[in-house]
Design goal:
Two copies of one chain form a homodimer.
Chain A: H1 8-31, H2 44-47, H3 50-62, E1 74-78, E2 94-97, H4 99-115, H5 118-134, H6 136-147, H7 151-156, H8 160-178, E3 183-190, E4 193-205, E5 208-212, H9 218-231, E6 236-239, H10 246-261, E7 269-271, H11 281-286, E8 290-296, H12 299-308, E9 313-317, E10 323-326, H13 332-344, E11 356-359, H14 361-379, H15 382-389, H16 395-408, E12 414-418, E13 437-441, H17 446-449, E14 457-462, H18 465-479, E15 484-487, H19 491-503, E16 508-510, H20 543-546, E17 550-558
Chain lengths: 560, 560
């Protein structure tokens, strides 16, 4: 092993500097109260006037230029990002690398990392999170212009909220690794002979971790996967979606700098940019050196991985059908507003967006009317729409909504309550926007809504409340669900409904209205994905998310 | 839910009674010093004169009779056990059940168990362990006469040592479940509005756990799997090897009694006895209700499961090639004796039995001579041989040794250092016995020893020590290894060797001689199977062994 550079002192200081953060995160995941080391508002009152300007300038300076990453095995440069806000190509090119070279480089970098004190690895991951927080105004611009998130959502949801998920994973990595004592004295009598053994327990990482990111919300699942694998000693290859590479390129840049600053080989984190025509994910998944796969994305490819990957750790988050059941409400407008906002947020391109709203016959008309009115109130206020809905990332989502609209034309029992339509973005006139299509459905019609439609479409289904819970939880069990919602003033109804949600592995939000987005999932407090239904097998975050990313090897010998 | 019978008071008392045991086990797995709540000697000085007699009587009373288990869906009765000691059929028949009926019964029993306080589930598992300890003299007879273990080994290795592995798994189950707070108050400001949510976190078990047991050492891996799945809320189906059903039938009998005694449906634990002609394992593995599979047995079927099972939790322990490297020794006879005893114990039918002994050229002649002398010393003393070697469970192991013997006939570079031969068992003249075949091999010959030969055969390979470590760790990486052994007086050699063992995921015992069996793996102290090589993916026991057997489902609602 090479002598560490900079000296061991800097590494020790880093462990000390971030120890309080790790401790606070461990306390937070135990107590599950609200906590974060970050501020999730982009307000200049918090960050000062310069950082937003500098972040935007950094993003703009990057446009139409090669992204500077000194990766191994570069074949050529590729890039095909188009801003959903401007409609223009970003013009950024990324090194496309030979997957074998990325793997070989990770393996070359591995021994020093594997041998490093786990506490140092935790501290370096914490340092990466801090650097990424520092770079978050640039990241917000990047996420806006590849994914279509609004500025505020890109700043918060793809910044601090996502980094919190990463630090949450670090907390569990710390707990799992600290759970293993590093040495023991074993003393016992065997057949009258006193035996004393000294035992050593070594944490041995599994192998290269592959992090396959989605296009619409790349950082939120990438940070926990990255930090969980890295902290437990594994090199990581980040595989961004080809139409949303910039956020992961920024992550790779910042994290590689941290590694280099503290004397580690930056190739512990590399970036595998590919193209839609020549995807590289499966090559990496199949490589024997890749031992951990974290996937976020489509149920189609996620399901393929779930059915085919064996002998490796696989963590998935795909999608499902999120439902709202409205049995009774204390304040109809407040409930309708809560659902309307959740259905409008990022034009329903979130894994927590509701898609089906079940309403009792008595409430059907007034609730649907209030829901449409609340969506209209957002859609007709361009500044509000821009802040909430942002842009639609891909044509595919426009098509998804159009397909649904076509399928219900003249279909008995289905009424169009609200047509989807673009709104005029106040800042980006070329923005690809779409406000929600709202359909009224007279009774169960799973052929219409039992699969995820990835775009702004909401089905308002009239159904008796217990039947609605039965169908909602059946959909969760069979199609997956990440967030389910229930409104009722009847405690007996709630009490008989919650076990059904539990058995379907559906995380449930009850009677939430007001300023908090009902589909906001807070790191350290809200578990995200239960692993009990087809929406994915990975929970953010629990011990199971980290405990198998490293293994334990022991040796023992008679006490000297 | 039915009113608990007996009353809740009895359940509370049970939790209190076993709480100190669980706490002590948690302390033990943290400190990893020597600890056990049991005595692992069958001595009447410890247990009194009556229990051994009663245990033997219970076993003998069971011979040639139907085993009484009130299982659901009984098709017929089957039984094909033959004692390796007497050569006679045990004549015990077991109910063979429709697998669908076992699964349906487990699912019917599930809701009360799922809803039970995790602390009660832990206490009930602890109670099962205590009842099994009480029944251990009967169990020892059962294990002897299905597996061929000697009386003392059957008592200790398949009794307290195995129960310790079970309680160790309970300790981790307790840690993982207690790590999840059951409720939290979340308070945070959103856009100037104070939001307060009450959150509830529910532990939800995954589904039916299937425990597939091996024939030669059935209880040792079954207990941890059984208790890990059961304590975390899952029903369990025990699938014994058809030629070694009795131990698991006793386990099912005792555990079902405990469940019934405390008002739970005994069908939470059922027994799926099958026949060699009509195996049932795959039917159960493939059933969607089975969500956890614990397998111990052959690399062939274990490898099949590892390559095909997706979407379920799979824990395996199969086998590998365990090696000894002898670089230099402080006391040649002591080292040779240690290896000889390990190679003789249970006629090498253990997952920790050494198969290949690498010796330097300088040591080759004296070490091989000492090794053979030590094995002879055991083999030629019938009482000692009976206590150490026991019997050979299956004809297949006699054939394995004969096949090796045939393959080396007239092979250049291979010398027969010691012929395998039966020893005369002092108590059971019909016992199927075989003392080790010892072969001297002049240099690397992986075609001879790179696969596990399941029987008493030892290859003594002359090789330079660093090359030997390289080959031994290569075998571990590629063929699997559960226990590796090293003898050296050169600390520099040890220091450069240990990283290779670590990277191969090979648990290493260095310079151990004396009364403790070098292949003894102590629960609470020794990790068993690293999961980093083909010998299996399940570590006994770590957090990863339990953390994913349950999942977490949450609900949240505004504070009242």
């Amino acid at each position: 092993m090479n002598a560490p550079f900079p000296p061991a002192e800097a590494r020790r200081a880093l462990i000390e500097r971030h120890a309080p953060l790790i401790e606070a995160a461990i306390k937070a995941v135990s107590a599950r109260a609200a906590w974060s080391p970050f501020k999730d508002s982009p307000s200049t009152k918090i960050h000062g006037p310069d950082k937003p300007v500098a972040g935007k300038a950094a993003f703009e300076a990057q446009l139409n230029r090669p992204f500077d990453l000194d990766l191994p095995g570069v074949i050529d440069r590729v890039g095909s990002e188009v801003s959903p806000f401007t409609g223009k190509a970003l013009g950024i090119t990324y090194p496309r690398c030979d997957p074998e070279a990325l793997i070989a480089a990770g393996q070359t970098a591995w021994p020093d990392w594997r041998a490093a004190d786990p506490e140092l690895r935790l501290a370096l991951c914490a340092e990466m999170a801090m650097r990424l927080y520092d770079a978050n105004f640039e990241m917000a611009q990047a996420v806006m212009h590849v994914a279509g998130q609004s500025y505020t959502q890109a700043f918060s949801g793809s910044g601090p909220n996502a980094l919190d998920r990463g630090i949450e994973a670090l907390a569990y990595a710390a707990k799992a690794m600290r759970d293993v004592t590093r040495s023991a004295r074993y003393e016992r009598d065997f057949a009258g002979e006193a035996v004393s053994l000294d035992k050593t327990y070594v944490l041995v990482p599994r192998g290269i971790g592959l992090v396959i990111c989605c296009a619409s919300f790349p950082t939120w699942n990438a940070y926990p996967a990255l930090f969980a694998s890295l902290a437990t000693g594994n090199p990581v290859i980040l595989k961004p979606h080809p139409i949303a590479a910039l956020p992961m390129a920024i992550v790779a840049r910042e994290c590689r700098r941290v590694l280099a600053d503290f004397g580690f080989d930056p190739n512990l984190i590399t970036l595998a940019v590919d193209t839609l025509a020549e995807p590289v994910a499966q090559v990496l998944v199949d490589h024997p050196a890749v031992q951990i796969v974290d996937f976020t994305g489509s149920p189609r490819y996620g399901g393929h991985l779930e059915r085919t990957v064996t002998g490796k750790l696989l963590f998935t988050e795909t999608a499902g059908v999120n439902t709202v059941v409205v049995e009774s409400v204390a304040d109809l407008d407040a409930a309708a507003r809560a659902v309307a906002r959740a259905a409008s947020l990022f034009s329903a391109q979130m894994c927590t967006s509701p898609q089906v709203v079940y309403v009792t016959l008595a409430l059907a008309e007034p609730f649907a009317a209030a829901l449409v009115a609340q969506i209209d109130a957002i859609a007709e206020d361009p500044a509000l729409a821009a802040g909430i809905m942002g842009a639609v990332q891909g044509e595919v989502s426009l098509k998804a909504v159009a397909d649904v609209r076509g399928a219900v034309e003249r279909r008995p029992g289905v009424r169009v309550l609200r047509e989807a339509a673009p709104y005029a973005h106040p800042q980006f006139p070329q923005a690809r926007t779409l406000t929600p299509l709202v359909l009224g459905v007279a009774g169960s019609a799973p052929d219409l809504y039992a699969e995820e439609h990835f775009g702004p479409v909401l089905f308002v289904v009239t159904m008796e409340a217990d039947a609605a819970v039965a169908e909602a939880t059946h959909l969760a069990r069979t199609k997956g669900s990440i967030s389910s919602y229930l409104y009722s003033t009847d405690e007996a109804f709630i009490d008989r409904s919650t076990p059904l949600y539990e058995q379907a592995g559906a995380n449930l939000t009850i009677n939430l209205t007001g300023a908090m987005w009902i589909n906001f999932a807070a790191a350290y407090s809200d578990y995200h994905v239960s692993g009990l239904n087809p929406a994915g097998n990975a929970c953010l975050a629990d011990l199971a998310f980290v405990a198998a990313r490293f293994r334990i090897v022991q040796r023992r010998r008679p006490t000297a």
